[in-house]
Amino acid sequence: MGLASSDSERSGTVDFIVGTKTYQTWYMVVGDLKGGRRPVVALHGGPGMSHHYMLPHVQLFTRASIPVVLYDQLGNGQSSHIHDVPQSFWCPELFMDELDNLLKKLELSDDFDLLGHSWGGQLAGSYAALRQPQGLKRLIIANSPASIPLFMAGANELLDRFPPSLGTMIRKYEAEGNMKPKEYQDGVMEWCKRHICTLDPWPEQLLKSFGAAKEDPTVHRSMMGGYSFKIIGNLKNWSIIDDLHKIKYPTLLISSPTDEIQEAAILPWFLRIPKVKWVELQNSSHLAEFEEPDRYFEVIINFLDTITA
């Protein structure tokens, strides 16, 4: 296990064995994992992003002394990058195995909370429903769809609210498989500035994660397909809806009316998880940790302080 450390922060790697190959998962810990306060393990989105845009969650420690674990999922950021595997290698089961491995290596398997954002919430929800880990105590799902088809339907409905010429142009290029024209990229960015992050300019940590995804798009292309308004990758038909009743942990849902993840894709979490609370943040889109941090962290800390498990 490689390690670098300071008084309240340390980072390192753990070995993750898949078949006959050994890869590395990079992680970062803020706070004392043995200090008596249950840690939050935070899962980034994408798939294909890096931990950088999740760094605001360090505020759970600075605001409430809650230890935080961040990590780069396999194929992303500072974890191992892999290019000699079939597309089918990149699947939710792989990332659930990686999470299992990280928890064991950090000796957290017996007592931890999970927070997942976007794809990270899909992963956290799948892990809770399908693996049902004994040590998981509370679950936070932020801006995550319960179904990829429902997510795509909502994203396209949002696109239809823009001038018709924008949607026509974007869909034309995506039908051609050509995402390089500046016109296309500018059009997608116009949509993103309304439904991904409303800040101008975008925070450096967010740009760093997008840069990491662009530098190595393997995971995103394999799982999502590389388009903005259609999914052709391994997650094309992904849905956790039929398994949501298996999530027995107290769960907090966070969303926004203007998020790219629209209400129809959030609603199944609320309807089917037995113990669940849903909070909508009115002044954010997809990234409340940047757009509305005081309210976002207030909601999370209140949940962690008041909901016992």
UniProtKB/TrEMBL annotation:
The keyword Iron does not apply. Signal peptide: none annotated. GO terms for biological process: proteolysis. Residues 40-298 form the AB hydrolase-1 domain. It comes from Hypsizygus marmoreus (White beech mushroom). Keywords: Hydrolase. This is L-amino acid amidase. Belongs to the peptidase S33 family. One of its GO terms (molecular function) is peptidase activity.
